[in-house]
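Can't paste images in this forum, so I'm doing it all in text. The chain is below; anyone willing to post the predicted structure tokens underneath?
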Amino acid sequence: MPPGATQRGRRASMCDAIDHTKINAAFYDRMHSVRSLSIQEENHGSINVSLDYNRETGLLTVRLVQALDLPPREFSGTADPYCKLCLLPDRKTQVQTKVHRKNLSPEFEEIFVFEAPPAEISSRVLEILVFDYDQYSRDECVGEVVLPLEHIDLSEKVTLWKGITGYEKKKDDENDFCGDLMFSLSYLSSAERLTVVIFKARGLPVADEEKSTSDPYVKVSIVYAGKKLKKKKTSVKHGAVNPVWNEALVFHLGQSFLSNISLEFEVFHDRIGARELLGRVQLGPDASDEELAHWTEMVRSQTAVARWHHLSGASS
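Text version of the structure:
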């Protein structure tokens, strides 16, 4: 080496021996998992989740880490994703992550805990539904991950990358589907006040065949032990199957009642001499799916929560 020269760091050669202790195997496991997805799964992205089951307490801790390459909306090229998790068959366990705006690879980093006794854990199924939030319409489920726990070794903490498959929508009975109703719920515990804001409806059935329209209004009832304790209703919107109300209905209700009541929403056609039921939906702690999720979000949130809900017929 010439005088005064400094020795440079030696570059690794392709002929050098590889130090396997410095290789991050988790990175390659993840890439292999992602690449091994089917074409259908790749189109819907993938989800990283960890499971940690404590047999002594009967608690399953689910850490939703992130999602990759979620499908974008056609018109915007992006999405506002969030996830709903549920330990089937009990849909009352459903929980929800925060919404991540304009992000096709969101980092959720949220932890949820589910109760599952050791005798039942192998028969349970973890369902993760991926939704795209839409402020002006019903949120779309863009895919799902279904994990039967009987196929997973829960003797120690496990981390998985799973492909998101297309979500097969439930087929509504055409004779039972009666449109959608959008409303918000908020409860102010300090004032013991429940506020329901009826925004609008769409696709209501035609009650007046001659005019090919309806004259709808919404009746909201608080139901306790099968009896309607309090009732309030909106104004009538004449000649509208897609009416807009933007009306607030306020109920004074003690906080202790929230776990024992339900809210029934009924849309009626204002017919002379009688009324005709166009559709209904019920929310409460004993509801399921979207209706239970909305009720739970209202109980936990300090702000008004608005959602679309499907209306069903009188016989449902």
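The longest strand covers residues 177-188. Helices lie at 25-35, 39-44, 289-300.
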